[in-house]
Design goal:
Distance between the termini: 32 Å
Helix content: 40-55%
Largest sheet: 3 strands, antiparallel
Shape: globular
Strand content: 5-15%
Number of helices: 5
Order of helices and strands: HEEEHHEEHH
């Protein structure tokens, strides 16, 4: 199991996800965070959403790696560690284009990871993404090849 203690507090809040994203878009509000589930590929960048300034998007390949190739399992782990919470401050939001399979972390959770500093929280999450990718590459290299 990963050393989750380095990356968050594990507090439980209401989860986001596909319904929350659709409701936020319909209401013209930003997406509080959570799993982005749907039919597009993890690299398509075709889904417009609005997030609070300072939010962080975990790429779909990292989500899948956390779930040993299963995005739903990766989303579940991320929901436990980085719960979807609405921001404490009201803002106009930032429009971004994402892919299904990604996971949005709210700026309040990002700031808590950075000891109150959103920029430092982004640095912590950048390191988390880089390490997860590196670990996944090593794991994939160690798998046996196809049987002939």
């Amino acid at each position: 199991m990963r050393n989750w203690g380095l990356y968050g507090q594990g507090r439980r809040f209401a989860n986001g996800g596909k319904v929350a994203a659709a409701l936020a878009k319909a209401r013209g509000k930003y997406f509080a965070g959570g799993a982005l589930k749907g039919a597009t590929t993890g690299r398509s960048d075709q889904v417009p959403i609005t997030v609070a300034p300072g939010a962080y998007v975990i790429p779909a390949d990292v989500v899948a790696a956390l779930g040993d190739g299963n995005s739903d399992a990766g989303h579940k782990l991320l929901e436990q560690r980085f719960p979807a919470v609405g921001p404490k401050k009201k803002s106009s939001g930032v429009g971004i284009i994402v892919s299904h399979g990604e996971y949005v972390i709210s700026p309040d959770v990002v700031a808590s990871l950075g000891g109150g500093d959103v920029n430092h929280g982004h640095d912590v999450l950048d390191a988390f993404v880089t390490k997860t990718r590196r670990d996944n590459i090593q794991k994939l290299k160690s798998l046996p090849g196809p049987q002939t």
